[in-house]
Design brief:
By secondary structure, the chain is α+β, with helices and mostly antiparallel strands. 34% of the residues lie in helices and 23% in strands.
């Protein structure tokens, strides 16, 4: 799952730090813009994964044009949390009506893929 949030990058002497206005307490730092961006992507992924694991709601990202940086600059930061998650397959047993099963099989539908896509759409905000 790809997430994109606006961030404010601040420069202090020879280092940078970044904060996410929509995500209280999510911030990090680095010695260059590149290092800070990498750290911001990791911090964003860790923050969002923690919220998901705790069953908490994920804030909707603000429009970057609404974010004002008085002492820095704004940028969008993206992260793909799939690279940080445990991606082991887990077997699930479920029950569906016989007619639905037969129709899906005749259409060559991949049950695992459909279930994954449906679950992902349900848990995304």
């Amino acid at each position: 799952m790809l997430f994109v949030y606006p961030a404010i990058f601040h420069k202090e002497e020879s280092a940078y730090w970044v904060e996410f206005p929509d995500l209280a307490g999510c911030h990090t730092y680095g010695s260059s813009v590149t290092e800070t961006m990498e750290a911001a992507q990791e911090a964003l992924a860790a923050y969002l994964l923690t919220l998901l694991e705790q069953g908490k709601n994920i804030a909707v990202p603000s429009d970057i044009s609404a974010i004002r940086a008085e002492d820095g600059f704004t940028s969008l930061v993206s992260c793909d949390i799939n690279q940080y998650k445990d991606t082991r397959a887990v077997k699930k047993t479920l029950t569906i009506p016989s007619w639905l099963n037969e129709r899906a099989i005749s259409m060559g539908i991949n049950f695992s893929q459909v279930l994954q896509e449906a679950l992902l759409s349900k848990i995304q905000v």
